Every structure is written in C-alpha cells, then in structure tokens.
Amino acid sequence: MPNFDPLTYRYSSRRNVVYAKNGVCCTSVPLGAQVGLDVLKNGGNAVDAAVAMAGAMPLLEPTGNGLGSDCFALVWIEKEKKLYGLNASGVAPMALSADEVRAKGFSEVPEEGWLPTMVPGAPAGWSALNARFGTKPLSELFAPAISYAENGYAVPVNVAKLWARDSRRIARAMEEDPAPYEYWWRCFMKPDGTPYRAGDVFRFPAYADTMRSLAETNCESYYRGELMERIVAHSRATGGYFCEDDFKNYHPEWVEPITQDYRGYTVCEIPPNGHGITVLMALGMLEGLSLPESREDAAHYHKVMEVIKLAFADTKTYVADPRYMRTKVSELLSPAYLASRRALISDKALEPKAGDPHCGGTIYLCTADSEGNMVSFIQSNYCGFGAGIAIPGTGISLQDRGANFSLDPKSDNCLAGGKKSYHTIIPGFLLEGGEAVGPFGVMGAFMQPQGQLEVLVNTIDYHMNPQEALDAPRIQWVGGKQLQLEREAGEDIAEALRAMGHEVEIVDDRTAMGRGEIIWRCENGVYAAGTEPRCDGTVAAW
After folding, report:
1. So what's the pLDDT on residue 358?
2. What mean pLDDT is predicted for residues 30-40?
3. pLDDT in tens, 94-140
4. Strands (DSSP E) found in 28-183
5. Which of 35, 140, 268, 394 is least crowded, fewest Cβ atoms below 10 Å from its Cβ?
C-alpha cells in the first residue's frame, strides 16, 4: 500500500481523497460514476459496474467515446489473486490499404471520414466481460443508459467545452464533402446548428433503441445482425470500406498483462497493440535514476520527460498489431536495453531517437467492490467525437483509430486490411507483492503514458495520496525538445528546464494534460480514491 497522508494537499484542489468500505466507482462525469454505484448497491460486482458505466459513457461523454469505440480492460479477481487483460480493439476493413489512402491524395491517414474507421471493439468487449465475470444480465446493466437516452441528461461543463471544440473539427471536414457527416451533425448538434452547452439537456432516443438490441442479443446484433447490416449499408452508401465479413469475423481477445517492477511495486499494462509498454519502459529507465527529494525541482520534471521521450521514440517505432511486430515485448523491456537507453540521459535535453532493442480524446473508469474485485477500463474514439460519422437510426458514432496507422510499407504498423492499429488507450493496474493495490488510468491520447508515469512517480516516489497525485501540475512532451508545462508548476521550473535545453510552453488549458482516476485498496480493505480535477468527474462511493 503506498505511504501517503490523506490530510496533505500540496496543490490547489477542491477535492479530498474519498474513502469507502463497500465499493467505489470513478469516471470523468458524475452521472457515469453514479451508474456504476447503483449497480454495486443492487448486488452487482465490479465488472457489472464497469460494463454498465461503459454502456452509458458514450451517451454521457460523447466527446471521448461512442457506440463505435474500442476498449481495453484489466480485471482483478480477488478470490483468484489474478489479473486478466482484455483487448477489444478493432481491425481495419479488409478492403482498406495504405495504397488506397495514398491514392486518395493523403500522406497520412486522416482523422475524419471513412478512411480512419475500424470495426468497433467496445460492444464485443462489454459482452466478453459480462459473459466471463458478470453476475447481472445486460438488460439490467444497460437500463440506466437507456433511461438517460430517452429522458435526457444535463451536459457537464467540461464535456460542453470539448463538444464546442470538436464540432469545429467536424465542420471543417464537412466543407470538403458533407455527405458522410450529415447524420452525425443531426445527432450531436442542436437544431440551430450550435453545439450543446453546459446545462443543456441532451436526448438520444436512437441510442436507447441500440442499447436494447445489444442487451437482447448479448451484443451479437452489432457483429452478426441488424446493427451490423445498418453500419455496412451506410458505409456502402457514403463511400466507406466495410463489408459484412469485417464484423462477422471480429472477436475481442483475452491477453496476458505485461509488467514492470518499480521500487517495490509491479505496474501492469495491456500488451501491444496498446502503448502501455511506453509506461513500463519509462519506469524501467527511471528505476536506475535518483529523483530529487522535492517534486518541485526542475530535475524531477527533466528526468521524467527524458525517460518518456526515449520510451516513446521506441514504441512509436516498434509497437503495432502483435501479429506484425518483429520486435518482441521482452526485447523492449530487457534490463540491458533499458540500461543502454538510460545511459543516454544527462542534464541536457535529448532529441529523442529510436534505439535498437534487438540487441538483447477517450474515457477512463475504474471500479471496486466489497469482495476486492477491481476493474481498470478505458474506452475511446481517439479524436474527440471520432471520425464524425454516425449510422442513421442507431446512435452509433464511429471511432477514428485508423489515424494511428503508418503508411510506410517498412513499418510494422503500416495500414492493412484486417489489422489492428497502434493504440493509445491504456488501463493501468498496480500490485505490491502479488496483492492488488488498485486500478489507475489517465486518458488523453499520447498524454496517457506520460500522465500514468507522473501519477505513479507522485504516488511511489513522493508518497502522494490519490487525489494529490492527480492534482499535481503536469508536464507533457509534444515532440523534439518541446514540452508543455501547466502554469501551476511555476515560472522558475520553466526557466530551469529552458536552461537544460528544453523548449517550454506554459499552458492554461488543462483539458489536454490528461484526465485520470485512481482507486487504491488500503491495508484494512477500505478503498481510497481520487478523481481528476481537469474534468467533471466525482468519486461515487458506498
């Protein structure tokens, strides 16, 4: 159990650590956490709560996920003392290729339209979790989402902010060719063409109809039934690439989590095609470095950024669909290789480059129940609302995960039909001595490994409580020697980093700096939870 003081908050916060004996649910909007808590109170377990929340979040926070999302999950089953991993990321349509994208005049896969869309994995993931570990039927778990879709809910503050921002991106895409985006616009914009604002009531009856279909068929209608047929028909009618077999042949995968020991703890992640390995590589490098006593020392920020830059340089080069990866996870996590990467770090900023390991806009939620079971779950479109394509009459909006493919034929991550893309969503889980400490995650595209690393260092090296660990000022590497630093860190930190050769931008908009949730289990079995001050979430506790 991390050693922290629940009464100490070194950073500006309006939130305290929340303790609970019977169960906890955390996510980025209050209604989402309450959906999960109601399930726990009605006798469901942590997996039931997570599935219910996952089914509601595309409605409650459509700016980060949709019914056409992908998802990953880490599930701790207390009676087995075992952590399970689920990869429910989708695959590119068989008819799509890198050549097809280049023939359309693109040098990289765009973020809007049909080109970046992939077979969505989330509904299949919900069904797989429910079938293996759930205790409640999907009809009961999806009832809250159906009710909110039919009766409406009030849009939260930060969701409204992201709604306005991302609708401008879709509007720009519509200028080129409005046809694929027209139904999305009707679904997610008000009749006057403006985005929903904070406090506006958003209703989505078609979403309720789809959730009923998913509940009645254990999500089979999405892949081998009416919903699949609607997706494929709309794809064919508006220039997409899907065929029936793309869906019929899709199944999520149970995977073995990958791990890295760090200062007495074991950090667990989903293996590639996700980039949770970035966190593990960074921790492996940081393990051999000494951090300053004070977190508010530029040397802390410098070392954390240097290891994340080196880890990213490798994972963005080598991580892909594991069926296509020529580089092994064991090679990237080899102590000898990590030591060689660590040796590159000095007191000056690096220009990151990939090494040779062969020498040796997302939602996050977490749940815990009275039996000690816990779930770390992440679900994402990638960019905000995703591709900007919605399927008429269904409430399904499609992700744009294919934008993370490479078009370089030499890359393991080069786009090909039936292939998974490099994935940025990464649920995390912390163990100590083989026992569960708990789930954690930080959503936000390429900020995710960085946010996870910062939260873990705050917790393990600086003994921060879960709320304090999330409140602390963050820093983000954005390329080359360029860093973004939250203003709360202070100008003196920025100047010291500049003296080390970093190019530092002070940022005031904290929504791009990652949004996380944490649940730790204390030695007496009580849960201690924190939730992200950079979004609307609260901890729902019982």
Report:
1. 47
2. 97
3. 999 999 999 999 999 999 999 999 999 999 999 999 999 999 999 99
4. 70-77, 82-88, 153-154
5. 140
Angle between helix 30-41 and helix 143-151 axes, rounded to 10 deg: 140
DSSP string, 431-467: EETTEEEEEEEEESGGGHHHHHHHHHHHHHTS---HH
Are residues 258 and 329 in contact, defined by beta-carbon separation less than 8 angstroms? Answer: yes
Could you identify the residue written with the tokens 């990939």?
354
Calpha distance 468→65 (Å, rounded):
27
For residues 327, 330, 335, 341, the Cα torsion angle rounded to the nearest 10 degrees is 20
Distance, in Å, from the CA atom of 334 to the CA atom of 153, rounded to the nearest integer, reads: 49
Kindly write down the DSSP assignment for every residue of 122-165, as one continuous string: HHHHHHHHHHHH--S-HHHHTHHHHHHHHH-EEPPHHHHHHHHH
Tokens of 385: 């609302």
Structure tokens at 202: 């958003």
Q: Do residues 118 and 242 make contact, with C-beta atoms less than 8 angstroms apart?
A: no
Tokens of 420: 């998974």
Q: How far is CA 240 from CA 169, 175, 183, 225, 422, in A?
A: 20, 18, 15, 19, 21
| Number of neighbours of residue 425 by Cβ within 10 angstroms | 29
Longest dimension (CA), the chain: 61
Rounded to whole angstroms, the Cα distance separating 29 from 33 reads 7
Residue 305 pLDDT level (bands cut at 50, 70, 90): very high
| 3-state DSSP assignment of residue 202 | strand
Residue type, 229: E
Contacts of 356 (CB under 8 A, 6+ apart): none
Other beta carbons within 10 Å of 540: 28
Give the tokens for residue 155.
Answer: 């849009």
Average pLDDT over residues 383-402: 96
